[in-house]
Write a structure and sequence with these properties.
There is one protein chain. This protein is mainly α. It has helices at 2-29, 45-72, 79-96, 99-108, 115-148, 153-156, 159-180, 199-203, 210-224, 226-245, 249-278, 286-310, 313-334; strands at 32-35, 112-114, 191-192.
């Protein structure tokens, strides 16, 4: 009777101890994630591989051309093109954190990624995305000044202020993600319903209370994403009002051509980003989430050089001058 009592008292703690050990094992043994991505469409893997490889090559080459033109051509050594060069450099880094891994997955069929690799991907992606929000806001402000405050343009946007705004743009992105990333602690299952390590699907794998992570993310998103979006929105509202008040049709066209390219880029970026944030996280909307995510992670960085170059005479002229120099140097060397 006494032995039975002893066994009955010992057995429950043993089961609890076993569950604790198993949970700890799940925390430490889960060293890889599986990016499901586009695995639900196996018949399209080859086509998707070619498509994303093309997107990545066009993005890198197009933005690299913009950077080279801004650096090498003296006619483009202005604040506006300085910001544009930084945006192109950011787009190259931004795309390089996501597309190469996706292309590798589609080529080899290996959808695994280490936990550290996934966190690193989210860190760089989140930092660069937040930086782009601020950089687009600074570029909107740079468009606002010559149209709405032409007499104070030089005073309000000089080289010193320009470098300060640029430094703030890059620093805020890093600070934002650096606070959120340490809060993520992962359990099983290890399948990510996305083609890259975004924050929303990582929430679902977190062992910590997602309410804490979501609260911190909401606070930092409000501080670091909402202000640049509102600044961009207010800048363009003021620009549009001032353009409509201009009496000369030529002045309106010139003012509109100055900011139209940037306005298109802002619309594409924020439009797709807002759609991803507002769509509910349900099985019905999963594919639509991925589609809109493609816009701000892949399509917008690819279209940026085309939008800025096709609608900008100075970029076209710089491209012609640079191409002429290259042809002349090549011809001289061949002789």
């Amino acid at each position: 009777m006494g032995s039975r009592t002893t066994i009955s008292h010992i057995h429950p703690p043993t089961e609890i101890h076993f569950e604790l050990i198993q949970n700890r094992t799940n925390l430490t043994a889960n060293t890889i994630f599986i990016l499901l991505g586009f695995s639900y469409h196996p018949e399209l893997q080859t086509l998707l591989f070619l498509a994303f490889l093309t997107i990545f090559m066009l993005t890198v080459v197009g933005n690299l051309v913009i950077v080279v033109l801004v650096v090498s051509d003296g006619h483009l050594h202005t604040l506006m093109y300085f910001f544009l060069g930084n945006l192109s450099c950011l787009e190259i880094c931004y795309t390089s954190t996501i597309i190469p891994r996706l292309v590798f997955c589609l080529l080899t069929g290996d959808r695994t990624i280490s936990v550290h690799g996934c966190i690193l991907q989210y860190f760089f992606f989140g930092s660069l995305a937040s930086t782009e929000c601020y950089l687009l806001a600074v570029m909107s402000y740079d468009r606002y000044l010559p149209i709405c405050r032409p007499l104070r343009n030089t005073y309000l946007m000089n080289g010193r202020i320009c470098f300060g705004l640029l430094a703030i743009s890059w620093m805020t992105g890093v600070v934002n993600v650096s606070v959120i990333t340490p809060l993520l602690l992962f359990c099983v299952p290890n399948e990510i319903e996305h083609f890259f390590c975004d924050l929303a699907p990582l929430f679902k794998l977190s062992c910590n209370s997602t309410h804490l992570v979501e609260l911190v993310t909401f606070i930092f998103a409000s501080i670091h994403t909402l202000p640049p979006f509102l600044l961009t929105l207010i800048s363009y509202l003021c620009i549009i009002i001032n353009i409509l008040q201009m009496r000369s049709k030529a002045s309106r066209q010139k003012a509109f051509s100055t900011c139209s390219s940037h306005f298109i880029v802002v619309t594409l970026f924020y439009g797709s980003l807002i759609c991803v944030c507002l769509l509910p996280e349900t099985n019905t909307w999963k594919e639509l989430h991925k589609t809109f995510s493609l816009f701000y992670t892949s399509f917008t960085p690819m279209f940026n050089p085309l939008i800025y170059s096709l609608r900008n005479r100075e970029i076209k002229a710089a491209l012609v001058r640079t191409a002429t120099k290259i042809v002349n140097v090549t011809h001289t060397l061949s002789l």
